[in-house]
Amino acid sequence: MQGVGDRVQGVGLLRVLIAGGGTGGHVIPALAIAREVRDAYGAEVRFVGTARGLETRLVPEAGFPLELIHVGQLKNVSLATRVRTLLDLPMGILKCVTLLRSYRPQVVVGVGGYASGPAMLAAILLRVPTLAFEPNAAPGLANRLAGRFVTAAAVNFEETRRYFHGARVTGIPVREDFFSIAPKAGGASKRLLVFGGSQGARILNQIMPTILFPLLRDLAGLTVLHQSGPRTEAETRQAYLETGADESRWQVSAYLDDMPARFAEADLILCRSGASTMAELAAAGKASLLVPFAAATDDHQKKNAEVFVGADAGRMLLESELNSQALIDTLMEMLRDDAELKAMGEKARTLAHRDAVKEIGKMVRELAG
Ligand SMILES: CC(=O)N[C@H]1[C@@H](OP(=O)(O)OP(=O)(O)OC[C@H]2O[C@@H](n3ccc(=O)[nH]c3=O)[C@H](O)[C@@H]2O)O[C@H](CO)[C@@H](O)[C@@H]1O
């Protein structure tokens, strides 16, 4: 087996800049890539993000340095904000040029999200090799603009390759612990995990309290853990309290730090179908009821969910079909059927990309060398 020293021979110290962030869907795979290039190739890794993304908490907690740049929003904002964002863009690119000149990374990895666009553009201008990471079937704005000019790209779907130069289908890196989750035995004491992606999902926060009481009444051993997102934690907890359901059988939390442990406890997961969420369901081999976010770019969450439905690895309820009756009926049916939960979990596991992070790490190493 090669040691770290052997693998970095000829490159000197590998320096990697990872750019992007915003939501967990960008930051969490970025951290998996950072750990891989650090541990496998001895790389020094820095991040560049913006002050309003989840990176401000998760990146320092993981022990990596983070530089902040100012980048405004372009999507779902007023015309005035869009104009301001475009006017600010040259400053953002200039700041990234300065950063690249002082840090001198051999590779810049763009994971999508606010800071990704200016950093990738700066790297392209300075001819620093670039790797784009795109987990969704349809790329977001930053990757769509930079896609043709990057040196290489790591994607999750075959159909996504056409947006990029040098794309390979690698899958999405997820935290290693998801892969070692053992199947649950089934039986009466079931656990339902409800989570709405890194920011929570208002629709799940509103509908769950409407069915909580009858759900807990009719399934005697059931407990519910509900992640609400930080913005609506208090009102979601209040709505749960007002159901009068036994408080020892449910818990509302703004954000769950140890997601692999929360997945391990769950028999069924009711969630959005963001890209990393799907990769984690597959890695963990968990049964799911998926509610795609209808306003996602090109309806990509529905496409993500359809892959699971097509493989009998999960069920889907579209937002347009979601009402209290449909939800409680589906949850009851699934939670009462141990054989279905088990079979679904096994099917989900077949969709996992075990080596995604290793393949992406290798691509970074190749670009550097
Ligand atoms: C509303 C929206 O636009 N969502 C997008 C966003 O979703 P979002 O940011 O929710 O992304 P994903 O579903 O891909 O990933 C969420 C990540 O956050 C983690 N997590 C979540 C909640 C929590 O309490 N603790 C925790 O650790 C999950 O384990 C997972 O690793 O980025 C994804 C990847 O580009 C897209 O596919 C989604 O469509």
From TrEMBL:
It comes from the Bacteria. The keyword Glycosyltransferase applies. Gene3D superfamilies: Glycogen Phosphorylase B (3.40.50.2000). Keywords: Cell cycle, Cell division, Cell membrane, Cell shape, Cell wall biogenesis/degradation, Glycosyltransferase, Membrane, Peptidoglycan synthesis, Transferase. Residues 16-154 form the Glycosyltransferase family 28 N-terminal domain. GO terms for cellular component: plasma membrane. It is a peripheral membrane protein. It holds the Pfam family Glyco_transf_28. Transmembrane segments: none annotated. Its main location: membrane. One of its GO terms (molecular function) is undecaprenyldiphospho-muramoylpentapeptide beta-N-acetylglucosaminyltransferase activity. NCBIfam families: murG (TIGR01133). Belongs to the glycosyltransferase 28 family. MurG subfamily. This is UDP-N-acetylglucosamine--N-acetylmuramyl-(pentapeptide) pyrophosphoryl-undecaprenol N-acetylglucosamine transferase. It comes from Granulicella aggregans. The gene is murG.
